[in-house]
Prior knowledge:
Layout: H1 3-6, H2 12-20, E1 32-36, E2 42-47, E3 53-61, H3 74-81, H4 91-100, E4 104-109, E5 113-121, H5 125-137, H6 143-160, H7 164-176, H8 198-208, E6 214-220, H9 224-235, E7 257-262, E8 267-275, H10 284-296, H11 302-309, E9 314-323, E10 328-337, H12 341-358, H13 362-379, H14 383-395, H15 402-411, H16 415-426, E11 431-436, H17 439-442
Parallel strand pairs: 2-6, 7-11
Antiparallel strand pairs: 1-2, 3-5, 3-6, 4-5, 8-10, 8-11, 9-10
Amino acid sequence: xxxxxxxxxxxxxxxxALLAFxxxxxxxxxxxxxxxxxxxxxxxxxxxxxxxxxxxxxxxTGGSAQDPADKPGVAQLMADNLDEGAGDLDSxxxxxxxxxxAIQMNFTVTRDQIRGSLRMLKDNRDEAFDLLRxxxxxxxFDAEPLERVRAQTISILRxxxxxxxxxxxxxxxxAGFPNHPYxxxxxxxxxxxxxxxxxxxxxxxxxxxxxxxxxxxxxxxxDAEALGQLLDKTFGTLPAKGTLAPVPDVTIATGDxxxxxxxxxxxxNILFGGPSIKRDDPDFMAAYIVNHIIGGGxxxxxxxxxxxxxxxxxxxxxxxLWWMDKTSIFLGNTATRADRANETADRIAAELKRIADDxxxxxxLDEAKSYLKxxxxxxxxxxxxxxxxxxxxxxxxxxIDYLDRRPAxxxxxxxxxxxxxxxxxxxxxxLTVSVGRPPAEAATPxxxxx
Length: 450
C-alpha cells in the first residue's frame, strides 16, 4: 500500500535511467526467448542491454475468485501486505531495502490472478529478486502494518461507496454474475474487510502461491542463464501445486435489465455490457476489430459519432472486450446529464443493434485493421509494458510467436467474418447500470439556500 508514495521518491539517476529505457525496439519482438530454469520454471525473456535495467511481470492463478465466500477481499489485503515485512525484516526495514536500491515492487489482484511486477537496476537484481522471494515465501503479516493497510483499504472502500464509477462497476458485476465468485469486487466490502485475519492471509497465500500456477515474463539487461538461476532462487521453494477451489464457467446475466442507483452527483454514470466470446475463440480477432469500430477507437468510433457528435449527449463513450478465465464480456461506459440518461442509454442500445443487424462497412473494417496493426508496438513503449504484454500472451496461450503472427491474423478477417461476429455478440440484450440523480429530480432546479 506504500507503493504509490514510494514510487515518487526515487534517486535522480534511476529516474533518468527509466526515461532512457522508455523505448523498446520493435525488433525486440523477434527476440523473445523461452527460458526454462534448471528447476523447470519457465519464463519468456526479451534480452535488451540498451540500458542496465530489468523489468519482470509475473502472475499466479487464483485472484479474488479464490476468496472465501464469506470474506471477499482476502486476496487484495494479502497482496497489499506482501511488501510490509518478510523474513527477518519488519515493514520499515523491508521498505528501507527497497528504497535504498531503488527497487520497484508492486502487487495487484484481478478476479483470476494475483500479479506482481519487479523493476530494478541491473546491479541490484540479486537483491531485488531476493526481496521478492521473501515477500512470496515468508511474509510476516505483522499486526501494525496489517491494521494500517486495513484502515487504508476501508478508507478506499468508503470513497468508492460514493463514487459513481465504482458503484456502477460493483453493481454491474453483482447483477451480472449472481452467486458466482466474479460477483464481488476484488477489494472486498466494508463489511468483510474488518473481519479478515492474518491467518486468512496465510491460508490464502499457501493455497495460491505455487509453481503450477506461475507465469513469468522478463524484459531487460539479463541473459537466459542468469535469469534461470534467479527464477529458481525466487520461486523454486514454492509448492509444486496449488490447492485452488474450482470456479465454474459462467455467462453474464442480462435480460435487458436496466438498474438505477440514486446518487446526488452532477452527471449520471452509465455502464453497459453483455456476453462476448473467449480469447481462444477463432473469431476473437474479428470481435476485437468490430469492438474498435463500435467504441474502442475513441474519436473515430460509431458510438462517439452517434452519441457525442450528432446528438451532444455525452463527452466521451467507449467500449472494450473483457476476457477472464471463466467468462467473457464486452463492457462500455459513459456519463451524461441526469435528464438525458435514458435517452443516452436508448441511443447506445440502438447503435449496438444497428451494428448487429448490418455489421460494419468495408471502409470501417479496413481503417480499423490498419490502426490496430500500426498501434501495437507503439503501445509497448516501455520495458514494463512489454513484459506485461508478454505475460498476457502467455496467460492467453497465444504462442511465443504471436507478435509476428498478429498482423496476418488481423489481415485475415473478412467483412463476412466481421458481420457474423457483430451479430453473434451485439445482438444480445444489455445489462445497463446508471448511477446519478433521478431524471425527474434533475429536471427540477434545486432551491437556493440562504
